[in-house]
Amino acid sequence: MDDAQLLQYSRHIMLPDFDVAGQEKLLHAKVLLIGAGGLGSPIALYLGAAGVGHMTIVDDDKVDASNLQRQIAHGDGDIGENKAVSAGAAITAVNPTARVHAITQRLAGDALSQQVAAADLVIDATDNAQTRYLLNRTCWQHGKTLVSGAAVRWEGHVSVFSPSVLSSPCYQCLYPDTEADAQLNCADNGVISPLVGVIGSMQALEAIKCLTGVGQSLVGAVLFFDGKYGEWQRIGLSKNPHCPVCAAS
Ligand SMILES: [Zn+2]
Question: What's the pLDDT tens digit per position in 45-93?
Fold first, then answer.
């Protein structure tokens, strides 16, 4: 790290358990962020500002006027622009040294596999059930930790699933029924603006802890947040011994 970086990240470095070593880990980290909407916005901005060295952001959607109420990486001038490109520009406006790669199409199959394999950590910031299950399976195949978050209406939750931890459940242990259409999205149900900031910021925090090894991650637990009543609930989550994704065969 040069003198400019020591100054830029000084508030991290003065944390005794973080120090220069923690910042070096962030500067060398490669993060794959799927989704640059409500959750993806604070994740991209915080991880970019925090000094994550390389971020690949994936989103096939374009910025719409109805997004600006909560998707804070995008501005009025970005309407019509691809969200991954717009979020990338927002990161480099804060931190010009951050390397950002924007992918403007939805990834599946080999293309998704390649990106997951190349990342140190994957973050799910989508509101699409199909993508969530696919991402979970792909992370498990490649042994990559997945930081998962969801937010709709006034409620959200966050968790971390880690194939490198033997006892870790996966996303499908939490929601076993892949056919259930129970997953809600903001377009149909609405969402209170700062909720995505709360949950997205928690995902960014968990990502930093996983990348640096500082603190204790949410592996084996889910944190639920009820914004209307200001209540947090931490619930332990065990591996489903019959899970088709993560249970030992
Ligand atoms: Zn599982």
Answer: 999 999 999 999 999 999 999 999 999 999 999 999 999 999 999 999 9
CA of 181 to the centre of ligand 1 (A): 19
CA distance 54 to 60: 20
246 is catalytic: no
Ligand 1 centroid to 239 CA: how many Å? 6
pTM of the predicted model, to two decimals?
Answer: 0.96
Q: Which of 139, 173, 186, 210 is catalytic?
A: 186
Q: For residue 241, how far is its CA from the centre of ligand 1 (angstroms)?
A: 8
Q: Walk me through the domains of the chain, giving residue ranges and CATH numbers.
A: 3-236 (3.40.50.720)
Is the pLDDT reported for residue 182 higher than 80?
Answer: no
Phi, psi of 31 (to 5 degrees): -115, 135
Q: Are 58 and 32 in contact (CB under 8 A)?
A: yes
Which residue carries 């489903």 as its tokens?
Answer: 240
Residues 6+ apart with CB under 8 A from 232: 223, 224, 225, 226
